[in-house]
Amino acid sequence: MATRTQHRTPLRIAIVGGGIAGLALAARLDAARFRVAVFEQYPGIPAVNTSLAVWPLARAALERIGVFGPLAAASPSIDRFPIGTLDGGAVVAPPMPGSILVGRRALLTALHDAVPAETARVDARIDLAAGRAPEVDGAPADLVVGADGVHSAVRRALWGEASAAVATPWLAVRGVLPLRFDEGEYGERWGRGWLFGAGPHADGTNWFSAFRSELGPRDVDVEAALAELRAHAAAAADLPHATTAILEAVDPGTTLAQRIHAAPPLRHVVARRGAGSRRRPSADAIGVPVALVGDAAHAMTPNLGRGAGEALVDAVTLAGLLAERPVDEALRAYDRARAARTRRLARASDLVMRVALAERGQPWRDRVLRVAAAATGGRRTGPAPAPAPATAPAKAATTA
Ligand SMILES: Cc1cc2nc3c(=O)[nH]c(=O)nc-3n(C[C@H](O)[C@H](O)[C@H](O)COP(=O)(O)OP(=O)(O)OC[C@H]3O[C@@H](n4cnc5c(N)ncnc54)[C@H](O)[C@@H]3O)c2cc1C
Q1: Distance of alpha carbon 78 from alpha carbon 67, whole angstroms
Q2: Which ligand 1 atom sits closest to the C-alpha of 42?
Q3: Which of 63, 249, 365, 377 would bridge with 68, disulfide CB 3.0–4.6 Å?
Q4: How many helices (H) and strands (E) does the chain have?
Q5: How far is the CA of 5 from the centre of ligand 1 (A)?
Q6: pLDDT at 398
C-alpha cells in the first residue's frame, strides 16, 4: 500500500505562523509533492530590522533554502562574540566562524520570497481549540505544524496550559541607529543587573540591553523602559564610549521594548494520534499529527542568540524528513533530532541570562570573567577608540 510520502495523494500541510520558522519550512517543502498553506495572523512583513546572529548550523540551513548568499552579501559578518565586564577590564570572545548578523526584516523578506508560488498564504489567526485541523486546498490538513512563536496557540491546545509561555523578570530593549563604531567598541558588557551590547548592522549599529523591570508584560512603555535603562547607565562608573554615544542618540520612536518570555521545556515536540501521557501529548483532539517548530517548540531567552537559528534548523530538518519518510516515521525522527538538543540550549540560554544579569552575584561573576579572559588571552588593553563616521567599515560584534 502506498504511504503518504509516496504521494499518490499529496500530503496537506497546514503551517500555523508565517514567521522565521513557518516561512523557512514552507520554503523547503517541495510544492510538487505537498499541498501547503501558511496561516499568518498579521499580513505583511514586520518593519522590525534588529539583528539576529546566524551561526554555522543556521547558516547551513539558509544555504539549503538558497538564501544565504544574498543575505550574507548585505550583512556584516562576525567571527567572534566578545562578552565582558562593564568596565572592559575582562573580555572573552568565543569564536563564531562564518557567522553573520542579519536584519530580521531582511531575513523574513528572503524567506518569504523563497516560498513556492503554489503555497497558499492565508491571513488568519488559527485557534485549534475548536478541535479541527485547518483546511488546505479545501480539505482538512493531514499534518499541522505549529510555527506560531513563544505564545503558540498550537502548543497550548495540545500540550496543555502548563506549556504556556512564562514571563521572565527581564525586559529587552533594542534598536538600530545610523552610527558606526570601530570593531573594538562592539560586543556585550555585563553590569550589575543589566547588560548592554552593540554590533554592526547593515544600516549602522544594532544595540540591545536587558535588565529587571516591572514594566509590561504587554505593551511596554518605551519611554519608561529607556528611563530605566538610562538609570542603570547613570549608576555605572566607566561606560564604554559606544554605550554613551548610543544612549545619547536613542529615540523612543525607533526603539523596541518587550518583556522576555520563555516556554517551559518540552520533552516532545510532536504530538501523534493515540493515547497521550503527561509527557507525551496526543493529537487526538484534532485528529491529525502535529509538529512544533521554532519558538513554539523551544522559546528561549535571547542570551545565546540562538532562537532564530534553531528555528531555521528545525524547519530544514522537518522538511528533509518529510521528503524522505512516511509522516509518522518522519515525525518520530524529527522529535529525536530536535527535542533534546533544543531543550538543552534553552536551559543553557536561561543560565547565561541569570549569570549575565546577576545582581548580588555580580562581583563573583566578574571574577570568573576575569579568570576566563586571562585564560583565553582576552583581556582588553587601552581605552576604547572614538566612534567612526557613519560610512566607516565595521567588522565584528555581537547581538542579543
Ligand atoms: C530581544 C530578542 C533578541 C533576539 N536575538 C536573537 C539572535 O540574535 N539570534 C537568534 O537566533 N534569535 C534571536 N532571538 C530569538 C528569535 O527572535 C526567535 O527565536 C525567532 O523569532 C523565532 O521565530 P518563530 O518563527 O519560531 O517565531 P516568531 O518569530 O514569533 O513567529 C511566529 C509567527 O506566528 C504568528 N502567529 C502567532 N500565533 C498565530 C496564530 N494563532 N495563527 C496564525 N499566526 C500566528 C505570529 O504573528 C508570527 O508571525 C531574539 C529574541 C528576542 C526577544
Answers
A1: 18
A2: 47
A3: 63
A4: 11, 18
A5: 29
A6: 32
Evaluate the omega torsion of the peptide bond into residue 217 and state whether it is cis, within 30 degrees of 0.
yes
CB-ligand 1 contact for 23 (6 Å cutoff): no
**Residue positions counted in the chain:** 400
CATH code for position 272? 3.50.50.60
Element (H, E) at 190: strand 187-190
E-strand stretches of the chain: 11-16, 34-40, 51-54, 77-80, 83-85, 91-92, 95-103, 120-123, 135-136, 139-140, 143-146, 166-177, 187-190, 194-201, 204-212, 255-262, 270-271, 290-292
Distance 109 CA to ligand 1 centre (A): 14
Q: Which residues are paired to 258 by β-bridges? A: 172
Has residue 115 been placed in a domain? Answer: no
* Residue 17 and residue 149 share a domain: yes
pTM for the whole thing? 0.92
Whether 341 and 368 map to the same domain: the answer is: no
> Quick check: is 203 in a domain?
yes
Query: Which range marks the domain in which residue 369 is found?
Result: 168-261+353-375
Burial class (CB in 10 A: 0-12, 13-18, 19+), 135: middle
Q: Which of 20, 25, 39, 1 is nearest to 321 (CA)?
A: 25
User: Ligand 1 mean position to 230 CA, how many Å?
Assistant: 27
User: Could you report the per-residue pLDDT of 295-310, keeping only the tens digit for each?
Assistant: 999 999 998 889 999 9
- In the predicted model, is pLDDT for residue 392 greater than 60? no
Q: Do residue 149 and residue 173 come from a single domain?
A: no
Q: Which of 15, 45, 295 to mutate to test the pocket of ligand 1 (most atoms within 8 A of CB)?
A: 295
Is residue 77 a part of any domain in this protein? no
Which atom of ligand 1 is nearest to 23's Cα?
25
The string of pLDDT tens digits covering residues 182-225 is 988 899 999 999 999 999 999 999 999 999 999 988 899 999 99
